[in-house]
Structure formats: C-alpha cells, structure tokens
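Structure in, sequence out. Go:
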C-alpha cells in the first residue's frame, strides 16, 4: 500500500518535474555585446537577432550593449548578463577576474580559419640570431603585432631584437620592402590540420604582392594559436539553457544563414564547441600592456 502511495505521488509530480526547465529559473536571458559589433550598428538587425534567440529558446531575451569590453567583462563576471559575445582577450580577462564563465562555442571562418598565430617574419638572408636583427612592429595596441610577441620576449620565449615602431601595418610593410628592417611581427591564419611552413599568408595575404618583391621570407618564430572570440556563458546558467543555446548556434549555418551573417559577419563557417583550454594561451596577456 505504501509503495502504491509513493507511485501516485510521483505520478502527480511528474508533469511538474518535466516542466522544471530553465524557463522557470531564468525569467529573462540577457545577452551582452559591445557597441563595436557589426550587428549593433543597425537597430533593425539587432532586433532580428534578439527575436531569433527569443523564438529559439522560448524565453524573453534582452540584448545589453556596452561601450567597451571592460564594461562587458564586469557585467559578465557579476552575472548581470549570463551570455556574452566576447573577443578572445575579453573572455580570457573575464575568466581571470572570476573563474565563473565558460566558452560555449567559437566561430569558424568560411575557409576553415579558427583564429591566428602571431609570427616573426624575416628575410631568408637574415641572420639566425633574433637579437641581432632590426624588427618592425605596428603599435602597442596590436595583439598579434606587439602584445603577444612582447609577452614572449619578457618571458624568455623569444630573444629581444632591436625594435622599430612603425605605427601601422602598412608602414611595417613599407619599412620592410624599403630594406629599413630585417623583419616584422605579424599574424597568419590558423587552420586546424595545416602545418605552418610558409610566410605567404602573413597578414592574411593582404600584402602578398608587395612582400613578394622583397625576396624570400621565412617564419623565425610563431605563437600558440589564438582562437576567434567565443560565445560564452556564466557558470550559473542552467545546463539545459546552455545546451539549448549551443544547439541553436550549431544549427544556424543551415537553418538561418542570414542570421549567422548578422551575428558573425566575418566568420561564415558556423561554430564549433569550445574546449576549456582554447584561450589559455592568452592568460599572460590579461592585465599586460
């Protein structure tokens, strides 16, 4: 008789348990995004993105805009937004501040590019000792062209050459082609499974014609991969909501390619699941300038 009573009690509770999903614990999903994101420029596009998330998740959605990544980092770390579209560095900074966020998905470009590596490119005829070379860099704000190489230099992973600040990537190329420097810091695309052996794709190939006239090049040093910025969630987010967001992003390239263009205008290849260590290579950059 007692077992029968337990059965009826469970049967009565089962529908309520089945309905006990994220909609009961998250009244509104707030998504953080910086004003520099392409979707923010047009209110109609931003509203399209908001409605798509709300429809897919069956949940009211509010998109919260921030003037800078500093504001986004603070809001995500304090759980004022549970979901944020980060740059690689802003995600690493948020994780450093609180250890309370996780990368859910990261974007992939249409050609399979998942990020970049910082590189030191030199003339084939240049000496093998980096410390003896004169190397150009763009400016101190460049992650690939200064911050990552600078971290490698101060940590002992790369010898310190004579440095020449050029002010822009175009000026870096100008100085190199003119023979004023032996090499320069730049970046190359990172594509899984491809072995990095050539400098042909430095700066994404944008200056390949000009650099070809400067003679053979070689890569003297390269960094660990830096992945495209992730879509990340606060660890307090219910697991079923995080799973629903992941499924929504996974289906987007086929189900809503136009929405993908709004959300990731430079990464048309969709998304892949992010791993815990994907942004570990940026730990040393957090707070470093």
């Amino acid at each position: 008789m007692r077992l029968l009573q337990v059965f009826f009690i469970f049967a009565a509770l089962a529908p309520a348990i089945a309905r006990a999903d994220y909609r009961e614990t998250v009244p509104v999903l707030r998504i953080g995004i910086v004003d520099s994101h392409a979707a923010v420029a047009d209110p109609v596009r931003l509203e399209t993105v908001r409605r798509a998330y709300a429809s897919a998740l069956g949940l009211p959605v509010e998109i919260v805009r921030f003037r800078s990544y500093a504001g986004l980092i603070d809001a995500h770390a304090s759980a004022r937004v549970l979901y944020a579209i980060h740059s690689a560095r802003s995600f690493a900074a948020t994780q450093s501040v609180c250890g309370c966020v996780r990368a859910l998905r990261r974007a992939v470009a249409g050609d399979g590019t998942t990020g970049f590596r910082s590189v030191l490119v030199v003339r084939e005829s240049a000496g093998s000792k980096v410390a003896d070379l004169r190397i150009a860099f763009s400016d101190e704000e460049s992650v690939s062209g200064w911050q990552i190489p600078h971290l490698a230099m101060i940590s002992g992973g790369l010898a310190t050459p004579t440095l020449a600040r050029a002010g822009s990537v175009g000026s870096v190329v100008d100085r190199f082609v003119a023979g004023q420097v032996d090499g320069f810091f730049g970046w190359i695309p990172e594509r899984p499974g491809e072995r990095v052996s050539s400098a042909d794709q430095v700066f994404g190939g944008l200056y390949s014609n000009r650099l070809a006239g400067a003679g053979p090049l070689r890569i003297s040093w390269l960094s660990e991969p830096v992945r495209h910025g992730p879509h990340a969630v606060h660890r307090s987010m219910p697991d079923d909501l995080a799973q629903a967001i992941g499924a929504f992003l996974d289906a987007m390239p086929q189900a809503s390619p136009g929405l993908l263009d709004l959300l990731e205008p430079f990464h048309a290849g969709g998304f892949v699941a992010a791993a815990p260590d994907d942004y570990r290579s940026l730990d040393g950059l957090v707070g470093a300038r």
